Amino acid sequence: MKRIIIADTTLRQAAKNRSHSLSFKEKVEIAKLLDKLSVDVIELAPIEDAKTDMLLTKSICSSVENGIVAIPCELSENGIKTAWDAISKAKKPRLQLVVPTSTVQMEFVCRKKPPLVLSMIGVIVPEARKYCSDVEFVARDATRSEREFLYDAIRNAISCGATSVTLCDDAGIMTSEEFSAFIADVYENFPELENVQLGAQCSDAFSFGCACAFSAACAGANEIKTAVWGENTVSIEAFSRFLGARGSEFSMRTSVKTTMLERISGQISRICNAEKSKTTPFETGVAASNQSFVLSEYDTPEQVAAAVQSLGYDLSDEENANVYEAFSAISDKKSVTAKELDVIVATAALQVPSTYFLESYVVNAGNIITPTAHVTLSRDGKSVSGLCGGDGPIDASFLAIEKITGHHYELDDFQIQAVTEGREAMGSALVRLRSNGKVYAGNGISTDVIGASIRAYVNALNKIVYEEEEE
User: What is the mean predicted confidence (pLDDT) over 90-115?
Assistant: First the structure.
């Protein structure tokens, strides 16, 4: 029975949608869910911001255990190297070269005439193969390309080392019969495709996407591009369920776990469709950490550093040494959980001179008023105040600090816990802020949780400001 490889483009689709921008944490979570679903290929968005996107891609690569991680390259030697640097640590990396092959797309995207595009293919495919053994040539707008040129482009890509070829119907105007005939015609003209994986990407602009994808598989395509979420894409749920119901009649199957499909698709859709508030620091929600490891005194510095990295931190060797020293002082007496390691990092790593100092805060909250916070910080000896309302007292406090600094940072995590007992119990708060893809943790202690939270936020803020000024 023929196995159809399923490539999911949800993360790439999400990157295009500015109205539902996802947080760093949400993107990593989606990649983990897709891997859990046994999707064969997880396709990422191209590298645009060197710092943030590189860190995101590396985090996803370390999280994906089974699937191929694919990323499109900028069509240049530097672009290919940048993409490879981002995914080189993936267990199964793939470089994608997305090249327009229709006349309009070539002039609009590449600003090149057909002969120059062919020459470019002859340069970029071997360059990609220098780094990666899995190189995908994606013929964009293939169904509207002149056949002779399309065939020359495919032939050139295969001869230069492309291991898979994907044909795209970007306009989505073909019927299933026409797309099947298109794929069959390509096979007829290319006996070499027997040794190369052929994929199909069908637009669902006119609701023909799933039918065209199935007809492409029947005509010989080995890989189908789908998505859990995205505009004009073939639904992974519809395609996989159809093959689950009728695949045996056509000797086709997928590796997607259909028993988990509805639940995981629902989780991803909820993440992608959640309305993001324009104001609150908690716009992505704060969930309990899914890290559940326990470290002991027998763990080595390398194992502790790996655990720290799994929490999302990118520390220097000196900072890792400081964390291990603080860890050792605790691990002699008890085991250390993921949450406790978070606090250790917040207190032991990247200790910097303070730029902002907390002078005072006044918070008003109740069940019949909108919570407000008036926070005063000092910087360079000058006091600056911020007054804001919010969904809750802590939300209002964080917004007041943002008003003072004039900058919004992604709130990656937020934790509160009591550290002593009794009426005068001390509360400890942990705040993790993300700037340029990097995590900065701050810890605060006070007799009230709001004060602890404000101190933790200011602590993390000072680390960001210090590092940005050093650069």
Answer: 90
The encoded tokens of residue 444 equal 């605060």
For the ranges 65-74, 303-312, 329-338, the one whose mean pLDDT is highest: 65-74
> CB–CB of 193/187 below 8 Å?
yes
Strands 382-389 and 369-379: antiparallel
Measure the CA–CA gap between 11 and 39, rounded to whole angstroms.
Answer: 13
Which two structure tokens, joined as six digits, stand for 42?
Answer: 């997880």
Per-residue confidence (pLDDT) for residue 288, from 0 to 100: 46
Confidence category of residue 287, pLDDT binned at 50, 70, 90 = very low
Task: State phi, psi for 200 to the nearest 5 degrees.
Answer: -135, 135
- Residue whose C-alpha is closest to residue 226's, from 2, 1, 3, 4: 4
Q: Distance (Å, rounded) from C-alpha 58 to C-alpha 84?
A: 11
Residue 279 pLDDT: 66
Which DSSP category does 298 fall into?
A: T
Asked if residue 175 lies in contact with residue 207, where contact means CB atoms within 8 angstroms, the answer is no
Q: Tokens in use for 302? A: 């390398």
User: Rounded to whole angstroms, what are the CA distances from 471 to 109, 241, 314, 465, 467?
Assistant: 35, 51, 16, 10, 6
Strand duo 294-295 + 336-337: pairing: antiparallel
Instruction: Give the type of residue at 440.
Output: Y
Question: What are the tens digits of pLDDT across the range 418-430?
Answer: 665 555 556 788 8
369-379 and 356-366: which strand pairing? antiparallel
Rounded Cα gap, residues 357 and 193, in angstroms? 65
Phi then psi dihedrals of residue 175, to 5 deg = -80, 170
Q: What are the C-alpha distances in Å from 91 to residues 34, 61, 62, 68, 329?
A: 15, 7, 8, 7, 35
Written as six digits, the tokens of 345 are 């990092």
Task: Annotate 151-168 with DSSP letters as a single string.
Answer: HHHHHHHHHTT-SEEEEE
- pLDDT digits over 118-135, tens only? 999 999 999 999 999 999
Which is it for strands 68-72 and 93-100: parallel, antiparallel or unpaired? parallel
Lowest-pLDDT range of 291-300, 361-370, 422-431, 442-451: 422-431
Can you give the C-alpha Rg of the chain in angstroms? Answer: 26
Hey, what are 301's tokens?
Answer: 């510095």
